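Any chance you could type out a protein's amino acid sequence plus the matching backbone structure tokens because I've never seen that pairing?

——
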Amino acid sequence: MDILSVQSAVLHGMVGNNAAVPVLQSLGWAPLALHTAWYSHHKGHPGWFGEVTSLAVLESFLQYAWQAPHLQVTTVLSGYLASAAQADLLVRYLPEGVFYACDPVIGDLPGGQYVSDEMTQAYRERLIPRATVLLPNQFELGLLTGSSIQTPTAALDAARGLLARYPALQVVVVKGIRAAAALHLLAVSREQLACTQHPVIDYRLSGTGDAFSAAWLALYLRTQSLHLSLTCAGEFLYRVVRRTAQQHQRELQLLPELPWLQQEVMSLARSLPDALRSYDHTDATRGA
């Protein structure tokens, strides 16, 4: 089983596929990294350069991912998409029955929206209707639902509204609602609700959402548990941000915390042998 990760890439830094791929690998998957753009570093920092992947090249790689006889793509994770045309192309190649985790990279607080209105509409009208899981942050959840999301209760109501609006959508994972000194995380399905929280760390970083989405997806595919995947992914990201802030680094200190994440999964494997029986952390670079 292969995971196709469709996101941006950078020459240095931990955003997009640079963040998602090592997290997925650490939990036993062998992701296929398809880059929607290739930049020197995150566009939020000055001096960046690079270019968007052309539609012709993107389509060639999508065709290869689905048609190569030695690949078996059963899961797709999408992050930053550079244009509505890229979104249309991705939707065109999503086969029926694929597990599609859509991270709607639209904007964040306090900066707000940083993609075009056309791209936002592409999420509403084309990507989310095909998604199995949606992973918005606080700002994105509010924009997609037309709601003011200031509390976990408001986030829960908005997530349930998305589940009611989009029949194919099975889970909404809200990647953080800041309330006072706590950051609340929610995972909502039509039957279940999982919640966890961590202390707020006031340290601005790029790539946190990309790392969290990859960790949650990898854990959920292993455990099929909203609670375990949310709790473990949330704790992993909290540890990463805390370490990065303590060391006063500009880029996520992601790699030093991956052994902890692997160990947590091994602990889960002992408690849930049926769900996790195929996981072997010595086989992490080859996949399950």
In short: Residues 277-288 have pLDDT under 50 and may be disordered. The chain has one domain: 2-283. The domain at 2-283 is CATH 3.40.1190.20 (UDP-N-acetylmuramoyl-L-alanine:D-glutamate ligase).
